[in-house]
Amino acid sequence: MDIKSAEFVISNSDVAKCPQRPIPEYAFIGRSNVGKSSLINMLTNRKSLAKTSGRPGKTQLINHFVINNNWYLVDLPGYGYAKVSKSSKKKFQKFITNYFEQRKQLAMAYVLVDVRHEPQPIDLEFMTYLGINEIPFGIIFTKADKLKPKAIERQVAHYCEVLLKTWEELPPYFITSSSKKIGQDEVLNFIDATNEE
Ligand code: GDP
């Protein structure tokens, strides 16, 4: 898929106020600092479509972008940031679950995980939540430039092994690096194929 246009539409914290066009939507989510904003910028060939932030956990909104005038890319807030209060964590959980449980246009969620890290309970629990709610998801491994190819292979194989303890099948997964522009075609072509289904 070529990116012909990528435009910001709206940010909000209420799923009812998300844009209403009946076009497919792909949501990107992951722990704060996983590289989500950088990935969105890399996928869309834009320098700062999504705001990379030095302060993790700051962008607590659902951000809609329209790509090629025919699908939405959604930048969801990063989760798992330790320095927010319990009450704001609860509020956060509520609006994210509202989003996932109510958003009709949602075709697929992409859960981002840092390829260097051990599988984290918060990510695995989130995938289980998606599974329970029958929301298709894929995994995007980020920051692949930080490891040598053999180490990436090892990390990904280990992640798959852990997933297969609870899942019968592996979700689609992608190995990416925003700084080295790795994985752009794979992710965009997968979205293209899903749009055509
Ligand atoms: P977000 O909080 O998930 O949106 O993460 P950001 O995109 O703001 O990135 C967090 C940090 O990781 C920043 O310092 C980025 O420069 C760095 N980063 C993001 N993607 C990559 C990548 O592919 N490779 C490397 N080496 N660093 C990255």
UniProtKB/TrEMBL annotation:
Pfam families per the UniProt record, alphabetical: MMR_HSR1
Domain of life: Bacteria
Keywords: Cell cycle, Cell division, GTP-binding, Magnesium, Metal-binding, Nucleotide-binding, Septation
Keyword Magnesium recorded: yes
UniProt KW Magnesium keyword: yes
Function: Necessary for normal cell division and for the maintenance of normal septation.
Name this protein carries in UniProt: Probable GTP-binding protein EngB
Species of provenance: Winogradskyella pelagia
